[in-house]
Design goal:
single chain; 531 residues; alpha+beta; D-Maltodextrin-Binding Protein, domain 2; Dipeptide-binding Protein, domain 3; 9-stranded mixed beta sheet; 19 strands
């Protein structure tokens, strides 16, 4: 080829490349109240983290804008027998470093997600054998039938075996890790975006993946994520146009954002339940002035705490009406018999009487762990609870921390170091079994991943038995009755104090179109931005 022909071919290729690129590729700037500490997809089972990492990684399945399960890295699947699931993998998919995606990566990811240090061990049921049939077929052989096996696999992200082994990233990075691992600072997925740079606590830049196997629905060339903990600063950044999307919009600022020329608030119901838990397993609380015993092992103390909390006051004063008080540990949209349950009435006098009967007429002291940048008005809710418990003689020392420090302390990898805490939970399966297993399940079997998010160690073996039946029951009506029975037992135990479901409030520039899902995952591969 002559020099002239070479130059002409190069120019033609350049023109074609420009023509094929999105005509209005944009930079989208996003701010959240919390940080993205780690890029390791198995470090933290938390929906905001899952959403960030969902731009980089993908699961065997995905969920659409209505939360319905759709194929992703697995094209299809079947159950040849009740205890065997077979997944047929998508061919031609490459990781962002160019390596092909195969069954080896699935088997590796299944092993890695179950290892010590992972906060997502429940993604794979205990005792499951993961078998490579061929390069694009994988079998999951279970110890018992599980009709909802893959229901939370949209956030079980598949990692590259070759990349992990080459970079000493075979072991998961625990949330409590004090030294960053390679996988916490770098990523290699199959998703819509790759990571150009990651500075924990400062900024993360995602670049559009030109080789993504899907047809993009976004028109973004990059996403720049910046954590902004200050509510006022975050809102000001949105209104000035410095950022395009923020989450959450503080309740007190919703009207101001909606009345602005530049932005609006996307609102909707959320599936997350905010609740309070208590350490019911230790013989002596870690953080209390009561020595030699654990007050929370006494059902009267737990009932007293429940009845001392004025949920309507939290709704009107703290949440400004944007919450739905809950009698259950699951949103009513996810369990059709939830209307059969009623919260115990607010009764501070009754609570004080119960404390006296339990042997604490003057109350006691305890520390409450609370995030201050994770849920809507989380620290304010905890502060309100502190005041309410003070009325019955309980002195609560509030330890409110950024979520990175909070989760590192209270979750399983950190040793469940809490006596009294606030947490939020959206069941990854969108099913009651997840709550019964992960939140309410006994964690007394070290070989099982039951109760992985049961920070307080609540345990009732009857609930566990019912949870097992719920998992295998295929008759919907019978299944609902089993779920109801389990929730009734837990409610009578006062094992937890459910508070409410918070409302979604995302601030979005009027130049941006974005789909809002009820699980509160801000997924920007569905975002488009005007010039």
């Amino acid at each position: 080829m002559s020099v002239r022909q070479t130059l002409l071919a190069a120019a033609t290729a350049c023109i074609l490349a420009v023509a094929m690129a999105p005509a209005s590729a944009q930079t989208l700037r996003y701010a959240n109240q919390g940080d993205l500490k780690s890029l390791d997809p198995y470090t933290l089972n938390e929906s905001t983290t899952h959403a960030h990492l969902g731009h980089i990684f993908e699961g065997l399945i995905a969920r659409d804008k209505d939360l319905k399960i759709i194929p992703a890295l697995a094209e299809k699947w079947e159950t040849p027998e009740p205890t065997r699931w077979r997944f047929h993998l998508r061919k031609g998919v490459k990781f962002q470093n160019g390596d092909p995606f195969t069954a080896d990566d699935v088997v590796f990811s299944a092993e890695r997600v179950q290892k010590k240090g992972s906060n997502l061990q429940t993604r794979i049921p205990s005792g499951t054998k993961v078998v490579k049939v061929d390069d694009y077929t994988v079998d999951f052989i279970l110890t018992s039938p599980n009709p909802i096996l893959n229901s939370q696999w949209d956030t079980w992200y598949i990692m590259s075996k070759k990349w992990a082994e080459a970079n000493n990233a075979v072991e998961p990075t625990p949330a409590a890790a004090t030294t960053p691992s390679f996988a916490s600072l770098n990523a290699n997925g199959t998703g819509a975006f790759s990571v150009e740079s990651h500075q924990p606590g400062v900024k993360t830049v995602f670049k559009a993946n030109p080789n993504w196997w899907r047809k993009p629905e976004h028109n973004l060339k990059e996403i720049i994520f910046t954590p902004i903990g200050s509510d006022a600063t975050r809102v000001a950044a949105l209104l000035s146009g410095e950022v395009d999307v923020i989450e959450p919009v503080p309740i007190q600022d919703i009207t101001r954002v909606d009345s602005s020329q530049n932005a609006q608030v996307l609102k909707g119901p959320e599936l997350r339940t905010i609740f309070i838990g208590m350490d019911q397993v230790r013989d002596e609380l870690l953080y209390s002035n009561v020595k030699g015993k654990n007050p929370f092992k006494d059902i009267k103390v737990r009932e007293a705490f429940f009845k001392a909390i004025d949920i309507e006051l939290i709704k009107t004063r703290v949440m400004r009406g944007l919450s739905t008080p809950s009698a259950l540990m699951i949103a009513p949209q996810l369990f059709k018999l939830s209307g059969d349950f009623k919260r115990p009435k607010f009764d501070p006098d009754g609570a004080k009487k119960l404390l006296t009967e339990a042997g604490y007429p003057d109350g006691f002291e305890v520390t409450m762990d609370c995030p201050n940048d994770r849920y809507v008005n989380d620290a304010a809710i905890c502060q309100a609870v502190v005041g309410m418990l003070a009325r019955i003689g309980v002195k609560v020392t509030l330890l409110a921390q950024p979520k990175a420090q909070y989760f590192a302390k209270v979750l399983k990898p950190g040793g469940y170091q809490t006596s009294f805490y606030l947490l939020g939970w959206t069941p990854g399966t969108l099913d009651s079994h997840n709550v019964l297993h992960d939140i309410m399940g006994c964690r007394d079997d070290p070989k099982s991943n039951r109760g992985e998010a049961n920070l307080g160690g609540y345990c009732n073996k009857k609930v566990d038995e019912l949870a097992e039946k719920v998992l295998q029951e295929t008759d919907t009506n019978k299944r609902d009755l089993l779920i109801k029975e389990a929730f009734e037992i837990a409610a009578k135990d006062f094992g937890y104090i459910p508070l409410h479901q918070q409302a979604l409030a995302w601030g979005v520039s009027k130049k941006v179109k974005l789909s809002q899902r009820a699980d509160n995952q801000v997924l920007l591969y569905w975002a488009t931005k005007q010039d």
